[in-house]
Amino acid sequence: MKPYRFVIAASAFAMFAACSNVGNVDPSALIKSGQMATQAATLSDADVRALTDKSCAQLDGENKIAAANSKYQKRLNKIAAQLGDNINGTPVNYKVYMTKDVNAWAMANGCVRVYSGLMDMMNDNEVRGVVGHEMGHVALGHTKKAMQVAYATSAVRGAATSAGGLAGTLSGSQLGDFSEKLINAQFSQTQESAADDYSFDLQKKKNLDPSGLVTAFNKLAQLDGGKSSMFSSHPSSPERAQHIQQRIASNQ
């Protein structure tokens, strides 16, 4: 795999080379864009935390959050107690978004959000399996890489508009775009499989039943013929259910 800095730099160069009015772009803006792209590829843990804090706060402000005494938050609290209160030492904050959408995600700052539509569709064991999977993406560094890509995309877009006088920085509107890219990030087959195994291993370690992963995948496979936005990356949901079933059978 190519280092992120080279992929991002190449994308930025191609974008500007394609502009017919590139001669009108302020050279300092191009330099700034290159600096931002490099920064995106080398984000420190502190940068990641700051950006995810802002992103999570913005999304929380845009969504209806379940009340602390609601049946949804009580269910999630029960699941949270089983999974634990941290990811690699980072405290986890669990909340429910009241929406019919079927989704769940986690960010590198410990922000875990589960949609009520998913909770309506699944039992507690299945929700636990899904949340464990999302936590796996954080624990294994997948979300940080996805954030680098999302941030770099926003940086490049900002620099493209700098020809019109706008600063090539992550503005409020770009933060919204960045947040959407982050929660809808598509992971590779290897990353998805690794997150599945993380959830399985986490539940086994805590003496929990991991079979909810199997039935959760089977339910997701029924959504839109298996083409739902959640877990839409290859391998397919049936294949992933089979993999977990095999691990259960072998007790490994």
Helix fraction, binned, reads 55-70%
Structural class: mainly alpha
Major beta sheet, strand line-up: 3-5-4
Low-confidence stretches: 1-33, 156-168
Question: Given the C-alpha coordinates, what overall shape results?
Answer: globular
**Biggest sheet overview:** 3 strands, mixed
Strand content: 5-15%
Order of helices and strands: HHHHEEEEEHHHHHHH
The count of strands amounts to 5
| Radius of gyration, in angstroms, nearest whole number | 20 Å
Overall pLDDT score: 77
Q: Helical stretch count?
A: 11
Terminal Cα span: 30 Å
InterPro entries: Mito/Outer_Membr_Metalloprot, Peptidase_M48
Family: Belongs to the peptidase M48 family.
Biased composition (Polar residues): 243-252
GO molecular function, one term: metal ion binding
Question: Any chance you could write out the topology, listing elements then pairs?
Answer:
Layout: H1 4-17, H2 27-41, H3 45-62, H4 71-83, E1 86-87, E2 90-91, E3 93-97, E4 104-106, E5 111-115, H5 116-121, H6 124-139, H7 142-161, H8 172-183, H9 189-205, H10 212-221, H11 237-250
Parallel strand pairs: 3-5
Antiparallel strand pairs: 1-2, 4-5
Helix pairs in contact: 1-2, 1-7, 2-7, 3-8, 4-6, 6-9, 6-10, 7-8, 10-11
